[in-house]
Specification:
51% helix; 2 domains; two-stranded parallel ribbon; single chain; Spore Coat Polysaccharide Biosynthesis Protein SpsA, Chain A; alpha/beta
Length: 422
């Protein structure tokens, strides 16, 4: 979409007053009145501490909040007594809050941020998630410095995690992206990221193909775009990612469908890049963790497997269309195993790839495909918890590596089946 349709006349007038900038921080919001003040103050503190000689701008792209979020962004530098906090900088820092039009969602907000970045010729763009309560000024600096100092185009975050934390990442997204794109990136679902003005301009000129599939999980599609394009990519350590409490978030079913749909859409879009690739290379990682992993309470995987056999039976006709007969038979056997249901690594990798191929071929409505994977993912997560919840971190990390290796081994069969007509 052209810039003219993304930027209103009023916003253009504000941008003319700003002029060219060195560092732009984008903050997409939708009813974040309770969390936005701390985030904006962290950004301003980062500007003053780490970029005092740079031209900086904070851009709030709001999706139609009804809780006064944009006004809070503009006014949050006043304390309860009304005193204005003065931030000392050798350059002027601008704050702009602008609504975006269309369906609320992060993809729309990011399109606006990228268009503004392109117009302002921003050298560095950092995008933050206002849901994160643990964000500090150092996060902004960590995401921006590799672009400013080493000319990287895309900087993905790495959060200190307990190895049992984030099962959707460790069991599905990380191994699938690593094996598919041939790049070992730890957090493909980048809630926060940094990018160059070049990358931002590319995203404006080449928007996501299936906009609805990635509206609320656009970060994963952006990661795929960076890995598949002529872009210099790295990772950087941030601190533990702790989300604010009390915010409305989609339930597991909706979030799973959004995230997996975005992953499948990215791989489908970038098939010409990843299908011929073999092997895996590491993506450079910079910095040191900005804090220790949060404690993770032991989880019981058994409840996640209780309905596995029933779910497979209920979904049998759908799974018959998506999975090969061999894989479906193995899934049924695993669900009905006399010693208890399990979902082993090799079978899980084959399952995910066959769902991806079915998504590519559109064997049924694509949202039905991603929805049907959820019960199988829950069974897989339950299996991993049962097998490794009592393990020490080094042992669990070895098990996570084994998952990735299985996905790498299963990739060949997916490549062979990708363009088959039957």
């Amino acid at each position: 979409m052209a810039q003219e349709t993304l930027l209103s006349d009023d916003l253009l007038r504000q941008l003319v007053a700003v002029g060219q900038v060195d560092v732009l921080v984008g903050l997409p919001t939708l009813n974040h009145a309770t969390t936005i003040p701390d985030v904006v103050r962290a950004v301003q503190a980062s500007f003053s501490t780490y970029f005092p000689r740079h031209r900086t701008v904070l851009l709030n792209s709001d999706g139609g909040s009804d809780d006064n979020s944009p006004a809070i962004v503009r006014d949050c530098f006043r304390d309860d007594a009304g005193a204005v906090t003065v931030w000392h900088s050798l350059r002027t820092t601008h704050r702009i809050s602008t609504p975006y039009h269309g369906m609320p969602g992060k993809a729309n907000a990011l399109r606006r941020i990228f268009a503004v970045s392109d117009l302002l010729h921003a050298g560095v763009v950092v995008v933050l998630d206002p849901d994160v309560a643990s964000l500090t000024p150092e996060w902004v600096a960590a995401l921006a410095r590799p672009i400013r100092d080493q000319q990287f185009d895309f900087v993905a975050p790495v959060y200190p995690r307990h190895p049992m934390d984030g099962l959707l990442v460790t069991q599905l997204l990380r191994p699938l992206v690593r094996a598919g794109y041939g790049r070992n990136i730890r957090e493909p679902l980048a809630g926060e990221f940094g990018c160059s003005g070049t990358f931002a301009a590319h995203c404006v000129e080449h928007p996501v193909r299936d906009f609805d599939a990635t509206q609320n999980s656009i970060d994963l599609w952006l990661t795929g775009t960076a890995l598949a394009g002529p872009f210099k990519t790295c990772q950087t350590w941030l601190g533990p990612r702790v989300l604010a409490t009390g915010l409305h978030r989609p339930g597991l079913a909706a979030a799973f469908k959004q995230v997996v749909g975005s992953a499948f859409e990215a791989l489908d879009t970038h098939a010409d890049y990843w299908l011929p690739r073999t092997g895996t290379e590491n993506v450079p990682l910079y910095g040191t963790p900005l804090g220790d992993p949060a404690d993770t309470l032991p989880s019981d995987g058994a409840p996640l497997l209780q309905s596995f056999a029933r779910d497979v039976k209920d979904l049998h006709e759908i799974l018959r269309v998506i999975l090969t007969p061999e894989t479906l038979a193995a899934v049924v056997a695993s669900a009905e195993h006399p010693d208890g249901p399990r979902y082993p690594n090799k079978l899980w990798a084959a399952t995910v790839y066959e769902f991806l191929v079915a998504y590519h071929r559109t064997v049924m409505r694509r949202d039905h495909i991603t929805q049907a994977l959820l019960p199988l993912y829950l069974a897989r997560s339950g299996t991993f918890l049962i097998e490794h919840a009592a393990g020490v971190p080094d042992t669990v990390n070895e098990a996570l590596e084994s998952v990735c290796v299985q996905f790498e081994g299963a990739k060949r069969s997916a490549v062979e089946r990708w363009n088959q007509t039957t």
